[in-house]
Design a protein that fits this description.
The complex is a heterodimer.
Chain A: H1 2-16, H2 44-56, H3 60-73, H4 78-90, H5 94-107, H6 112-124, H7 130-142, H8 150-165, H9 181-196, H10 200-214, H11 218-230, H12 234-247, H13 252-264, H14 268-281, H15 287-298
Helix pairs in contact in A: 1-12, 2-3, 2-4, 3-4, 4-5, 4-6, 5-6, 6-7, 6-8, 7-8, 9-10, 10-11, 11-12, 11-13, 12-13, 13-14, 13-15, 14-15
Chain B: H1 11-18, H2 50-53, E1 56-58, H3 68-81, H4 89-94, H5 98-101, E2 122-123, E3 142-143, H6 151-154, H7 161-172, H8 180-191, E4 203-205, H9 208-223, H10 228-246, H11 253-274, H12 280-299, H13 309-313, E5 315-316, E6 320-321
Antiparallel strand pairs in B: 1-4, 2-3, 5-6
Classes of the chains: A mainly alpha, B mainly alpha.
């Protein structure tokens, strides 16, 4: 596993510096290839899809293997850690589930399903810290107002109470809802329309649903970045653009929008670097490069 | 909005639909997300036969007038009509041009775009998917009109065409404001499409020679364009047309390299046009001259490319030719 970790890290570093997303396997054996240049390589979005399919088929070990690869390639991706946690929980690997949910919690402290998943793992490990998660969920339920998912809170709280009451009983695991690609498609289309309508917060909700179906898909990540940027959350936007480019270094949308963000921050040199990468990726010209060029020339949104 | 009616396909189709991710072809996202061998397959109706829909095209019903200035304007419009970069927003990112819906200036009964079309040959042009301005929250696709059909069916009188077309480009498709000469050219081009000018043959084969001819016509329009912005747009159209050749030669790396080198020269010409550099017309002439040699080289392998009907017949959705991945 150690060498695999090196491989993935090498791939991510290459992606960040503009190289390939993941190191391509050479078959290994001699020559000047580094060890991390040989062996298998993984596409995070493809692995996420495999993990999801395995989870839906209740093949939890396969789900965990694929989800693990996603978390190694894109460690900032919340959905990957949640999926890994769910897969470990399905396989009743409670230590693994706890570790995955703890990582997810660092990325999203307010996520209800992460709190529930972590609480359940801790309960099954008979760790008294499970009570902290139950208390958190109860407090959330008590303060649940508009926009709060009361039904999910009730369900999570009940599951966790049951697990704490009988931690060794079989079947004390959160129901894993089936997540289907079609639902992700519909959510994604909704998000695009909502973005064009300027309804960015609503678009982010749809994009969350799409992300649950597709994981670290660069299209989804790019639009998450775009919506956050339009809402003025530049740092958050940048995080999503960087994730998208880590998965697909030549992603035209991510390069364009990241370049626009740099214009908005007054970093024209950085924007020009994005444009240079775009021009390299668009041998025959593309709208993304043309739009970013206009942004750089006008110092902002040329359509406003 | 009746969003549920938009549901269709996998993210690969959605992706093509919203156009963010042609670059994704290089990264291969989801297992079901294999890039189409030809971009236009992303908006091909499921029941359409790719060999027919992508191997043949309607003949153009174009009547050129005697007035040379008018002919130059029509040629500007003809090139802009074929350039996805005329449009903006998601349409341009998906690679859609006017010609995608109006093949040869006609209609396109095989057009079915995820989230945009109902039945094949229809499009909802008032959708938020493409427009920040004209989204009407109703899924109401309409038949794509034949621009070379009877004038009365088109409803827009010739004198109103520039304003009408500007509305399509800027509002319906979120495009940037086109140069005046491009708008005038589009109006002149569409007005010159007439049923009286239709050739006897209703359609003809899509060929390398045809695409290269389109590219050269766009460049000739650039050489005589009235302003630098219009010239740059014309060169953009020629570059876009080279892409249509490239994607049919992807299994032939030597030819693809030659095409990309030619495209790189066009990119430099486009930058020169934007900068109002001197000698643009001369440099364009040199490119056109050199393109004859490129054409001979490509034509020698046309039978192995996706221009060949036999190769097109082996084309499968999401993945190239009979197991041979048509990747770069």
């Amino acid at each position: 596993m150690g060498s695999f970790r090196v491989l993935v890290l090498a791939g991510v570093i290459a992606a960040i510096t503009g190289g390939a997303a993941l190191a391509a396997g050479s078959g290994g054996g001699g020559g000047l290839d580094l060890p991390s240049d040989s062996g298998p390589s993984y596409d995070p979005a493809e692995e996420y899809a495999k993990a999801l399919a395995a989870l839906n088929a209740r093949d939890y070990r396969a789900a965990a293997r694929s989800a693990q690869r996603v978390t190694q390639a894109v460690p900032q991706n919340l959905e990957a850690w949640k999926l890994l946690g769910a897969a470990h929980a399905g396989a009743e690997n409670w230590r693994g589930a706890r570790r995955a949910y703890e990582r997810a919690l660092r990325l999203a402290p307010e996520d209800l399903s992460v709190r529930g998943g972590l609480g359940l793992a801790l309960a099954r490990l008979q760790d008294p810290k499970a009570q902290e998660q139950l208390d958190w969920l109860r407090a959330k339920a008590a303060a649940c107002g508009p926009g709060c998912d009361a039904a999910q809170l009730r369900s999570l709280t009940a599951e966790l109470e049951q697990a704490l009451a009988a931690p060794a009983s079989p079947g004390a695991r959160l129901d894993q809802p089936l997540i289907l690609a079609d639902a992700g498609d519909a959510a994604y289309l909704d998000a695009v329309g909502l973005i064009n309508e300027g309804r960015y917060e609503a678009a982010l909700v749809s994009l969350d649903a799409a992300r649950a179906a597709f994981g670290p898909h660069p299209d989804v990540l790019t639009y998450q970045g775009f919506a956050h940027r339009r809402l003025g959350r530049f740092d958050t936007a940048e995080g999503f653009y960087r994730q998208a480019l880590a998965v697909a270094p030549d992603h035209r949308g991510a390069l364009e929008y990241y370049g626009e963000l740099k214009v908005e921050r007054g970093d024209r040199a950085g924007a020009r670097r994005m444009l240079a990468r775009l021009e390299q990726a668009c041998a025959y010209g593309c709208a993304e490069a043309e739009t970013l060029r206009s942004w750089i020339e006008t110092g902002g949104d040329p359509g406003r | 909005m009746d969003r549920n009616r938009r549901r269709s396909g996998t993210l690969s189709r959605v992706r093509a639909g919203v156009g963010l991710a042609l670059a994704l072809a290089a990264s291969g996202a989801l297992a079901s997300d294999t890039p189409e061998a030809l971009r236009a397959m992303a908006w091909l109706a499921p029941d359409a036969d790719p060999a027919v829909a992508l191997g043949r095209a309607p003949t153009e019903c174009l009547r050129l007038p005697d007035d040379p200035a008018r002919v130059r304007s029509i040629e500007i419009g003809r090139a802009a009509f074929r350039d996805p970069l005329l449009l903006g927003g998601q349409a341009a990112r998906a690679g859609l041009s006017c010609e995608s819906c109006h093949a040869g200036g006609r209609d396109n009964p095989d057009f079915r775009f995820p989230g945009l079309s109902g039945a094949p040959g229809t499009a909802d042009v008032s959708t938020s998917l493409f427009s920040r301005v004209r989204g009407n929250a109703v899924f109401d696709p309409l038949p794509i009109p034949d621009l070379a059909g009877p004038r009365a069916a088109l409803k827009t009188p010739p004198e109103a065409l520039p304003a009408f077309i500007r509305g399509l480009v800027v509002e319906e498709f979120d495009g940037a404001e086109p140069p005046e000469a491009v708008l005038r050219g589009l109006a002149d081009y569409t007005a010159a499409l007439t049923p009286d000018a239709c050739p006897a043959a209703q359609d003809g084969p899509v060929t390398l020679a045809g695409h290269l001819s389109d590219a050269r016509r766009a460049l000739a329009a650039a050489a005589t364009a009235p302003d630098p912005q219009t010239a740059a747009r014309m060169i953009s159209s020629a570059r876009s047309t080279l892409f249509l050749i490239d994607e049919r030669y992807r299994a032939l790396p030597t030819e693809t390299r030659a095409l990309r080198a030619a495209a790189a020269r066009l990119a430099r010409l486009q930058a020169a046009a934007r900068a109002s550099a001197p000698n643009l017309a001369r440099d364009i002439d040199v490119w056109i001259l050199d393109s004859r040699r490129l054409e001979r080289r490509l034509a020698a392998r046309e039978a192995q490319s996706l221009y060949a009907p036999s190769r097109l017949a082996g084309l499968s959705r999401n993945g190239g030719v009979e197991g041979k991945r048509a990747g770069p």
